Amino acid sequence: MSEPKPTFDAARYKNAQREQWNKDGAAWRRWTPTLERWYGAATRQMLDLARVRPGQRILDIAAGAGEPAVSAAERVGPGGYVLATDLSEGIVELARQVARERGLEQIETRAMDGEKLDLPDAGFDAVLCRLGLMYMPHPVTALREWRRALKPGGRVAVAVFSTPDRNPWGAVPAAIIRRRAQVPPPVAGQPGPFGLGGPGVLEGLLRDAGFAEVEVRAVPVHHGAARAADFVQVAREAFGGFNAMMAALPAPERESVWNEVEAAMRSFESPQGFEAPGECLVGAATK
Fold first, then answer.
1. Number of structural domains, the chain?
2. Of 151, 178, 174, 142, nearest to 161 (Cα)?
3. Residue 22: pLDDT band by 50, 70, 90 thresholds?
4. Which has fewest Cβ within 10 Å: 7, 44, 113, 216?
5. How do residues 238-251 score in pLDDT, each as one tens digit?
């Protein structure tokens, strides 16, 4: 008699995500200048495709420590409004602090599950989600909720990572960590960083959620640093998923894993510095 296949527990997964970002959110904020150098082009593409303009009401899902909410707030101006939401209470508090430091009084922050919005229908001109949808257990459910929150004719714009082969900055460390920590393969239905990056996947989700005028664009993401060691420092502190994968390892073994990761990432060094390729897909559509 074969053993039953492991099943994916969405509630447990969400609790783990919340705890992880409550713990790692401060590091994500600390590295914001570096992260914006890497992901700023994808953010700008999202705002352009969402047609964000002065005076609009914008909803940012999985806002993290404040992007793209801050960039959206600068576009809508003082006459507009941006609601920045995230599953993690801790990281959404960091987003609130960033907004106050920038003097962006048009930003409000609330802890909220992106798959179950505590919001009325048809209240926003655009919904944004940068690098969050692929970590949601039920992406079509999430997109339908976002569509519900949009005004007729409103726009959604999301960014996800494409495939592992086009994102060695993440795929190489993840493969090493998975092998060294003996992490079992993902079970059916388990979200992950490259889960929505396959051909036609993001477009299909947007259409399944009821959106029209769907378009998806590939955006190169250059993960640049002075040296591989500097990139790994960002990964160690800001990419909490890597640490979560090897949480059961003793500290010396974790250090050994990071040393192996750094050695592998040196293949992306040159006399000009370090640059690991990456790619996001930016999808947009209309209600």
1. 1
2. 174
3. confident
4. 7
5. 888 898 889 899 99
Q: pTM for the complete prediction?
A: 0.94
| Euclidean distance between CA atoms 52 and 69, whole angstroms | 11
Length of the chain: 287
More confident: 185 or 276: 276
**Does residue 260 form part of some domain?**
no
Q: What is the C-alpha separation between 52 and 73, in angstroms, rounded? A: 9
pLDDT over 80 at 4, yes or no: no
Domain-located, residue 163 = yes
What CATH number did the domain enclosing 39 receive?
3.40.50.150
Asked if residue 141 is part of any domain, the answer here is yes
